[in-house]
Amino acid sequence: MLAETPRIPNGSYPIRLRVIRSLNRVMGRDDDDDDESDEIEENGSGWWVLKIGSKVKAKIDENLQLKAFKEQKRVDFVANGVWAVKFFCEEEYKAFIDTYQNCLFENTYGFEANDENRVKVYGKDFMGWAKPENADDSMWEDARDSPVSEKKTPLRVNHDLREEFEEAAKGGAIQSLALGALDNSFLISDSGIQVVRNYTHGISGKGVCVNFDKERSSVAHSTPRKALLLRAETNMLLMSPVTDKKSHSRGLHQFDIETGKVVTEWKFEKDGTDISMRDITNDSKGAQMDPTGSTFLGLDDNRLCRWDMRDRHGMVQSLVDESTPVLNWTQGHQFSRGTNFQCFATTGDGSIVVGSLDGKIRLYSSSSMRQAKTAFPGLGSPITHVDVTYDGKWILGTTDTYLVLICTLFVDKNGSTKTGFAGRMGNKISAPRLLKLNPLDSHMAGANKFRGAQFSWVTENGKQERHLVATVGKFSVIWNFQQVKDGSHECYHNQVGLKSCYCYKIVPRDDSIVESRFMHDKYAVSDSPEAPLVVATPMKVSSFSISSRRLQI
């Protein structure tokens, strides 16, 4: 299902716009605006507002999901409904777009939109982010031309998504999904783990459900928030929050899948002091298939570390932000300034990408773990989830209202092409691209936020991920990766600001989606452009295969 942007019906008429700010700065203000302006000022709101007569008054931010159509001299946006606004002439349209962009910058960063403040926000090396029209996009085009097997054409609008399997949850509502690259995958609920079998058309039940031992393990008294497979997928680490209101955990449970028992309860401890972790992940993209693996990575608000299960006191290496004082762990110091880490992911060689509350995305190499090689500036929204391709060339960040896709490639002074994990990128940095819902779909998604955007799953050099998938409410949303990278793609025509892609497929469900992920690339069959998509809701999990046959329209 591909939803279309709403069209203005015949007979509709342009609406005159006014953009006002609470601090008595008014564009096109009428005499009857006095009361409204005073009311806003009394509330102390220091931001720009979009106002259209008595119908619309909304803060200018990404929640408006404004989409511009230059050829039609029109903008669509969401504000308690979907609105389409058409302008009389191109000059009015252009003046509105320019003013809107400036107001959005000021509302987002708290600075007036000028070149000096853009340097202050983005840094001199990232001016292509501030002025995308001047950015060097050659790296996007070079990467787009990378070879892709003719039999593995990415998902197109005319490809069909066919539901193959539907598996009911057993023993409680599904809380998370742990996909395996080998024989099995796992559905984690508040009472146990349901084992399902991996097939080329999706996952289906084996009839095995392991309940947590309520008498012997504390894992039964709290719902696991994160499940991490390791040791050739024979073991699973279960991480539960301390409280419902706090996502951090003080320890985790090591679950032996073959015996169906919790074999160890680990505490996060350093120098005799209990500490907490926000998240955990594997050392690399394919580490869960390594039968000898005993280490994994941990993340806290101001801590990024490697844990070793062979040492109960075990922080082996620490990774800190380059602008933060280096801590001496033997002295037990904490960072003097917060980094507000939120999420992280690893590449095939173990390089690490970390997303932060301020929207920054930092890259750490697998060999130098003391400071970030590259730090991308934030776009004004917290990064709630992050993923990276196996080769480390692309990063996908999730925010509440959009996804941000970043190319890490650059050419060093010797003419060699590298990623930002291997060296500092200098000032020839490509502008990112945004992936958004069109205003109609955004409105239909309601107040739900984007969650957990991920690339399709490959663990082999030379193979390229083909799709991106994210969850928003009852929708799973899929983008064609090759299409997003294509600078000539029709979505990007006549756009102002960062290029935004609105071409996607939506997989709707009847209930809120817990997680959406593509299975490992090994499960892609010859007549399908991708491995099956697995979509989990609290009470069931569904598998979809992508057929090359055309949709019947």
From TrEMBL:
Residue ranges annotated for the Vacuolar import/degradation Vid27 C-terminal domain, each copy included: 183-493
Q: Which InterPro entries match?
A: CYPRO4_DUF7135, Vid27, VID27_C, WD40/YVTN_repeat-like_dom_sf
Task: List, for all copies, the residue spans of the domain called DUF7135.
Answer: 30-123
Choose one Gene Ontology CC annotation of this protein and give it: cytoplasm
Question: What protein am I looking at?
Answer: Vacuolar import/degradation Vid27 C-terminal domain-containing protein
This protein's species is Anisodus tanguticus
